[in-house]
Amino acid sequence: MREYPGILDRVKAAFMDGIIMIILMILAKQLFQMFDEVPDLMRALAFILIWAVYEPLSVSLTGKTLGHAANGICVKKDQNHDKNLNFVSALFRFIIKFFLGWISLLVVSTNDKRRAIHDYAIGSVVLYKN
């Protein structure tokens, strides 16, 4: 029988991804400081790319973020564990997870596959990597 990651592994991955995104924000700020004037639109775009694209793009391309990889977990389609989510599904998963926050994880320990609300909504599952 397959084992699924619990809350602790998922929270550790999310924490690591949060740190990575903060580092990316600091790097973007440092890059912007190299120029005399940076339009607010560019700053906003950098913010959006870092916070709204990092996870969905990583999950859709590789099945995992850097935080997931460091914790030995990945995100796959629930109906086919060999398939990654497409970008749109990964984006909606991220948006739901972002807005529900910790509430989404409350159901993880109540089901066999340890799926969170955002996993149910999108049809994803978090697995230990083989």
Task: Explain the overall architecture.
By secondary structure, the chain is mainly alpha-helical. Helices cover 57% and strands 8% of the residues. It contains five helices and two strands, in the order H-H-H-E-H-H-E. It has helices at residues 7-32, 40-62, 66-70, 87-100, 117-122, and strands spanning 73-77, 124-128. A two-stranded antiparallel sheet has the order 1-2. Helix 1 runs antiparallel to helix 2 and helix 2 (40-62) crosses helix 4 (87-100). The protein is elongated and about 60 Å long. The model has no long low-confidence stretch (mean pLDDT 94).
Blueprint (SSEs and pairs):
Layout: H1 7-32, H2 40-62, H3 66-70, E1 73-77, H4 87-100, H5 117-122, E2 124-128
Antiparallel strand pairs: 1-2
Helix pairs in contact: 1-2, 2-4
* Strands in their spatial order, largest beta sheet: 1-2
Total strands: the figure is: 2
Radius of gyration computed on alpha carbons: 16 Å
Helix content: 55-70%
Mean of pLDDT: 94
What are the secondary-structure elements, in order, as H or E?
HHHEHHE
Sheet bearing the most strands, described?
Answer: 2 strands, antiparallel
Which strand-content bin applies to the residues? 5-15%
**SS content category:** mainly alpha
Stretches with pLDDT under 50, minimum 5 residues: none
Number of helices: 5
Which descriptor suits the 3D outline?
A: elongated
How far apart, in Å, are the first and last alpha carbons? 13 Å
